[in-house]
Amino acid sequence: MLKKISALIIALTMCAAMLSGCNNSSSGDADSGSSDVSSAAEASSGADGSSPDSAVVPPQQQNTVAEPSLTIDGKKMDINNFTMLTINGVDVDFLTFRYFYFYTVNQFTQNYGATLDTLKSVQGGFEDLIKQTVNNIKNSRMVVDVFAKDGNITLNDDDKKAIEENYKQTKSQFSSDTEFQNQLKNAYLTEDILRKNIEYSQLTNKISTTLFTNEGKYATKKADFRNIAKDSSKFACEMHIMIPYFSEVELDAETMKNYDTMTLESKLAAKQTAYTALDDAGREKAKNAAKAKADEALKKAAAGEDFAGLIKTYGWDTALAANPEGYYFSKDNSEFPTELVSKTFTLKENEVAKDLINNDTYGYFIVKRCNINMDYVEKNIDNMIAQYDQPRIDKLIQEKADGLTVKYCDGWDKLTIDSIT
User: Fold this and answer.
1) What does the pLDDT average to over 239-255?
2) Integer Cα distance of 70 and 11 in angstroms
3) Strand 83-87's sheet: what is its strand order?
4) How far apart are CA 266 and CA 129, in angstroms?
């Protein structure tokens, strides 16, 4: 199951990974190295960082990054010490803004396939890009400061030592200072911005462990969570058979030669690639075939066949292999499809849903609500609390961000998509 991870902090620790990706790429395309320091929960539980918030510079820009420049209303500005905006009294200089701007461009490309060129032809596209850039700056810098002040959290000598070691390790990946400077440029970074991002990463980790986990100020206490887990109206365990639309697509003869020996992950990737290449009629045919397969599995589940066995036979959720106890979540969980969560809470424990769930992203689901295993809860209580707290913490973070005051530079309303290079 692909998790929907809501980020507390973005664009922080990815700098080193991004530079490493540039350094290790012979063809100019960087590996995704973003680190979504989402909530304390995600940071402490090693949450998958493969969210859409990838900070890698788009491959086509790796070797074509223009010199930094700012043009407002036809006038080229002196970018030295130029303040683009002030957030909560903190000035954001042009180079920092530029870094987040192109980071946000890459978000748009990763999430929506939109580039600067395509945004030019989309009404309101540039305005959305600028708005999201400001939000990214807020969430990665000023919101961190707010929580640091809230928890009286500062960087001590050990933190500063770790920051310096992190910076040196990043730089040591390059064969020369010239190469390092070139890759900084390709990543829209400067040494100062890189250092600042590493500092904020360190501060974020302290905030995460102090306030959002380990029974911190904003974390649910373990004693309270045990009671929540026992309340079937608030918490549930679920298993499902997931049958994607593309699962029944036909593969070419060459792929089929090795199909039986492929892992489920590889089979899924092959099927999805083949499905993507189909025209609308072909996709509709594959979708109908998947529906027929889902109906077949549902009929067997309704007849009382072993659900775990049906998952092995019909299911395509690769993560269930690592979650033999099923998925545990609360009623307002946002990491799973809304339809799946809602359906689970309509069922009694050990009951299988009588109808299919149809989700546009994942395909068809057959849902079974399982018993809550309190021994399993106790063993995994820290991660479960983190997941349970996520929606509330996300809301708190958004409230903090919304409360920040922003003052824009003169000419802000005259910025265009061609203003920043």
Assistant:
1) 95
2) 22
3) 90-93, 83-87, 406-408
4) 35
